[in-house]
């Protein structure tokens, strides 16, 4: 079929959708569904969200912004991922949906439905895991695009799923899938899907680690023997899921960022190797064993999706990396300044801390369960820590207990110049922003935190 960039204007004619939450996912979902001919009622508990749709009109569907009294007669409720439908408390609109027998769906599921209703046979690749999802998603999309395939990437990373274009039969949707999104799938079938790793995260939403793992495993729900599951072998949760997927006669390739010959794709002498064959060598934009794991996953999926092996080596070498994931910002007086703002939990921060030997560390924000206790093995690498944000005192207790020098400085405006002085005094190799915490106490998101760090570093550079 010829390439297209938009979905038919009558694709969802006669359908009614409710959209709750008008942020990064909800607003594009409401607009897209109305543009495809659906009748859409949207609502956000905050005035700012509602204003995002004021005055917007669709030529085909009907879009209204109004609170919900009931959901009788709706085909589905699309809830923004951050709004809970089970734990820690059921949102009232989710309760309405349950009472009316209306499914609660992710916008990614409706993208899949729209693609198939448009008669495109474009394939779907899904990536999940506690850490590494965004890098793997971007890398896989890059490898596919480098090989000349039509690609659209998004989901939990970048554009919302329903803002992506319609792809032709040879196209591939590469979707980063959060646990919140995976709980709300009814039809989405991935031709290849990856679970990178599992460590404790979002336990308030899933109850416990078993609930979190079960949510992540939904990425494999509708796969068949014609598909490929790619699963990390670095933790017991992933190994158990791999065994259960194999028991369903679904092909599984295991991955490791270590020199681990038990994995189907693993690192050996700085190269990704599969079954004794060198596949490609990750470049400088993919440092550390965690990025080797990401590279293994992307390469395994790319091969399954038909990318020629001779295209992979050049493609991975051209990968520029992602903003806020160990992104080099500047060198000042021999010290590297690295933005790893995406590290919003301890496990993510460990990936960056493991890449350097003498570190001035900037950390803090809203701590996750367990704080930074799991980072104790990396403390000998830290010459000094500067703590920012709401839960700085909690992190300080852990550092003090292990005699790691620290200061609570409150914000990045104080942390960056103090870190520069400490780095040059202590002969550190890097000033690393890897907060191990969420950012919402001081910033709209980790992106804004990383951008502010870069601004402050570049201001230092200008006056160096």
From TrEMBL:
ATP-binding keyword on record: yes
The protein's matches in Gene3D superfamilies, at most eight in alphabetical order, are given as:
Mur ligase, C-terminal domain, Mur-like, catalytic domain, NAD(P)-binding Rossmann-like Domain
All copies of the Mur ligase C-terminal domain together span 324-437
Copy the pathway line from the protein's UniProt record.
Cell wall biogenesis; peptidoglycan biosynthesis
> Where is the secretion signal located?
none
The family assignment reads:
Belongs to the MurCDEF family.
State what protein this is by name: UDP-N-acetylmuramoylalanine--D-glutamate ligase
Q: Which gene encodes it?
A: murD
